[in-house]
Structures are given as structure tokens and as C-alpha cells.
Design goal:
4-stranded antiparallel beta sheet, mainly beta, single chain, Jelly Rolls, 5-stranded antiparallel beta sheet
Length: 106
């Protein structure tokens, strides 16, 4: 029997929540990884600072990212992401990474 995987939160903390959105802040030090987490909702990522960011999807991820992806950080960049991703965020850079995640509730 395989032990059930425990998923963590998608960000470092919730900044705001109402019946339509939940807003998270994600902070990762250089070399730090987030918890493995699942994105149950469509969301918008807003990059604030850092130099590199990566996503490491799990094998059962149903989100848009299926393979490890690493990219430059562009402060102010906004990316729409569909639901279903099961992944870990990774800071492979040399600077602290900060982003805002806005989950769109149905």
C-alpha cells in the first residue's frame, strides 16, 4: 500500500480573500522549494522580483506544465495558468523570488 501524498499550500501566505478571489504571496530564497501543491483553481501569476524561477511538475499533474521548466524572471510579467497542476516551485536563481498568485474562484 502506497502512503497518501500530503500536499502543501500554493504560497507563503494569503494576503486577501473574498468570494471571488484568493490572493497569495510566494517567497522563495535562492535554492528554496515550495511545498508540493495542487492548483485547484485557474490563477494569474504576477512576478515581482528574482532572477530565475522553475516549476517541477509531478507525474500526475493535469496542469499546463508537464516537464520541468526554468525561466528568467521578468518583474511585472503576468501569466494566466489553468487549473490542475500538481507541482513544486523552485528558485534556482541567486536572488530571492517573490510573486503574487491570484486564484480565480468559480
Amino acid at each position: 500500500m502506497t502512503p497518501e501524498r500530503k500536499l502543501g499550500t500554493i504560497g507563503s501566505g494569503v494576503l486577501f480573500e473574498n468570494d471571488r478571489v484568493r490572493v497569495w504571496e510566494l517567497r522563495l530564497a535562492p535554492g528554496e522549494e515550495s511545498d508540493v501543491h495542487r492548483h485547484e483553481l485557474e490563477h494569474v501569476l504576477v512576478q515581482i522580483s528574482g532572477d530565475r524561477i522553475a516549476v517541477r511538475p509531478e507525474a500526475d499533474s493535469e496542469g499546463p506544465y508537464r516537464d520541468y521548466l526554468e525561466a528568467d524572471v521578468v518583474p511585472g510579467a503576468v501569466v494566466f495558468v489553468g487549473r490542475g497542476g500538481v507541482e513544486t516551485a523552485v528558485n534556482p536563481g541567486t536572488h530571492p523570488y517573490v510573486e503574487i498568485i491570484v486564484e480565480l474562484k468559480d
